UniProtKB/TrEMBL annotation:
GO terms for biological process: cytochrome complex assembly. This is Heme ABC exporter ATP-binding protein CcmA. Transmembrane segments: none annotated. Residues 6-220 form the ABC transporter domain. GO terms for molecular function: ATP binding; ATP hydrolysis activity; transmembrane transporter activity. Gene3D superfamilies: P-loop containing nucleotide triphosphate hydrolases. Keywords: ATP-binding, Cytochrome c-type biogenesis, Membrane, Nucleotide-binding, Translocase, Transport. It comes from Novosphingobium aureum. SMART domains: AAA.
């Protein structure tokens, strides 16, 4: 896996006419995980979208090294297709083989994720937790160095939750990076945490315009 890193400097994020956070600095290096925590609507997903390059920063900068894979509430698997077919679509783009294990000691990914028996089931019939696992299978197949995970534990039973933590841990142990927006406590080695509440501007301090920031900042949908 290529060396991965994320460097965030003095980052500010604006949504609509609201400055959500400002002055955010962070560095994540290969092998580490970063949890982004905070109340609903504080800007966790917005931060992940900036890191993914899907939305512009209002001010400051983000530098990433390494390919990026992201999971949010959109699983990006065609609901009309059987799971196996939907995953094969991504496999054709990403390369890799989910039926094969990277390590002699662990079973293939679909089996580990409890999906091996579900490959004939249309994606739209999968349960919430099964869709989450399927999205994780797609992400693993992508072999991206940086994982951006938006609430990856929501809707998972305790077994799937533990497995997700294990897979994130393995990804980091192999030199990857994971940035995880989550309200829930995470059991991961080498985990740092950002509380976005620490970067919310004080009332009346939500205008960076005089710094020349964000004039062109229009968010993608
Ligand atoms: N395209 C947009 N235009 C304007 N405001 C937006 C847009 N998208 C999101 N917002 C607002 O930005 C704020 C932050 O949203 P975001 O989804 O980043 O929060 P979050 O911390 O991930 O929340 P949650 O925990 O509920 O998922 C919210 O108030 C939201 O309504």
């Amino acid at each position: 896996m290529q060396a991965a890193s994320i460097v965030i400097r003095d980052l500010a994020c604006r949504r609509g006419d609201r400055l959500l956070f400002r002055g955010l600095d962070a560095e994540v290096n290969a092998g580490a995980a970063l949890q982004v925590a905070g109340r609903n609507g504080i800007g966790k997903s917005s931060l992940l979208r900036i890191l993914a390059g899907l939305a512009p920063a209002y001010a400051g900068s983000v530098a990433t090294s390494g390919t990026i894979g992201m999971i949010d509430e959109r699983h990006a698997l065609d609901p009309a297709h059987a799971l196996g077919h939907a995953l094969a679509f991504w496999r054709a783009l990403d390369g890799g083989d989910l039926d094969r294990s990277d390590r002699a000691s662990s079973p293939p990914v679909l089996e580990r994720l409890g999906l091996a028996e579900l490959t004939d089931v249309p994606v739209r019939y999968l349960s919430t937790g099964q869709k989450k696992r399927a999205a994780l299978a797609r992400l693993i197949g992508q072999r991206a160095a940086i994982w951006l995970l938006d609430e990856p534990l929501n809707g998972l039973d305790s077994e799937a939750l533990e497995l997700t933590e294990t897979l994130i841990g393995e990804h980091c142990a192999a030199g990857g990076i994971a940035v995880i927006a989550s309200h829930q406590p995470l059991r991961l080695a080498n985990l740092a945490s950002i509380a976005l509440a620490d970067y919310v501007p004080a009332p009346g301090m939500d205008d960076l315009a005089e710094d020349g920031a964000g004039e062109e900042a229009e968010f993608l949908a």
